[in-house]
Amino acid sequence: MIFFASASANQNDLVEKEAREAGAQDIKVSSGGVEFSADLETAYRFCMWTRSATRLLVLVHRDDSMASTDDLFDHSMSLPWENWVNPDKTFAITETVTDCRWIRNSHFASLRLKDAIVERIRGAYNGARPSIDRENPDIVFHLHVNRNLVSWYVDFAGRDLSHRGYRTAQTQAIMSEFMAASLLYRSDWYRKLRASFEDPSLEAPALLDPFCGSGTVCIEAALMVTNTAPGLLKLDDFAFHKLPIHKEEIWEKIVDEAESKVCENRCKIVGWDIDKRAIEISKANAKEAGVENLVSFEVKDFTTISEQDVPAQSGCIVTDPPYGVRLDSGSAAIRRLYTAMGEVIFNIFCGWSITILCGNSELLGFIDMKPSRTNILINGGIECQAAHYYVFSKAERQAMLEKAQAKREERLSQPLSPGAQMAANRLNKNIASIGKAMAKQGVTCYRLYDADMPEYSAAIDVYEGKWISLQEYAAPSSIDPEDAKRRLEELVLATERTTGIDYDNIYVKRREIQKGANQYIKRGNSSHFYIVNENGHKFLVNFADYLDTGIFLDHRPVRKLIETMSKDKRFLNLFCYTGSATVHAAAGGALSTVSVDANANYLEWATKNMQINNLNTMNHFFYKDDCLSFLRENRDVFDLIFCDPPTFSNSKGRDTFDVQRDHGYLIRSCMKHLAHDGVLIFSTNFTRFKLFGELYEDFIIEDITESTIGEDFARNSKIHRCYMIRHKTEQALAIEPTKKIVKRIVKKG
Question: Number of C-alpha atoms within 13 angstroms, CB side, residue 104?
Answer without folding.
Answer: 0
